[in-house]
Amino acid sequence: MTSTAPNNASPYGTLPPASSPATRKPISLPRLHEMHARGEKITMLTAYDATFAAVADAAGVETLLVGDSLGMVCQGLSSTVGVTLETMRYHVESVHRGVQRVQGTAWIIGDLPYGSYHESKEQAFRSAAVLMQAGAHMVKLEGGGWTADTTRFLVERGIPVCAHLGLTPQSVHALGGYRVQGKTEASAMQLKRDALELQDAGATLLVLEMVPAALSAEVTLALPQCATIGIGAGVDTAGQVLVLHDMLGVNLGKNAKFVRNFMADAGSVRGAMEAYVRAVKDGSFPVNSEHAW
Fold it and tell me: Annotated catalytic residue: which of 142, 197, 209, 218?
């Protein structure tokens, strides 16, 4: 099927022409540091293809996570564990092309999938190189403890790293399901130790997923050099991330507590994304009493 819509028109919302110059400066590692230092909230959404990546970039979303959540929302898998490095490479390339097609400003993060970095630091580097060559600006890995050494190894070789603590979906079977993490004193202390180690290892961003709001606020204050990005972790993180399909209300199951359907009151996908950006920036999303623990 061939689209008959003009360059700058789309059912996803109006896009600027392909030939128009970018109206915003590209997001870079120094810019992320600057935003964090001045307290400006960082916005992040998942993206898996060229079209939605282009719309998100045009809507002002600063960071796009090509997440292994694609295994669930795109492939219909029951968890992220079945996603392969080759699949991630394909989707990173697609997102990169989409961003370049329109504004070319968003920072692209590629998830290192299950089994692609667990064997050794050298394996992690080889896997990260695949995603960087496909168009990622940064890679994300899950867990604490041993991942600090891997993070340091990658950062020393010029690969920016986003860490991920709390609910780590690749470890869902070990965690006993999709549960809030850091609820006990011991687990909260361990999460804080892991976060500090990852900052010291050079991680620039840290996703905190399904962590009590009070704990994520403590971690955020303790990490001046590493911006926390919350999902189900309260309003006090340095930024927020949602799965694209969740925030558009088109997921295959029931929305998690931390999700808001931004499409409900928007006239287009781009309008929903712009509303999300505004809400994160002004602190009206998330609301601790509604979206956090």
Answer: 209
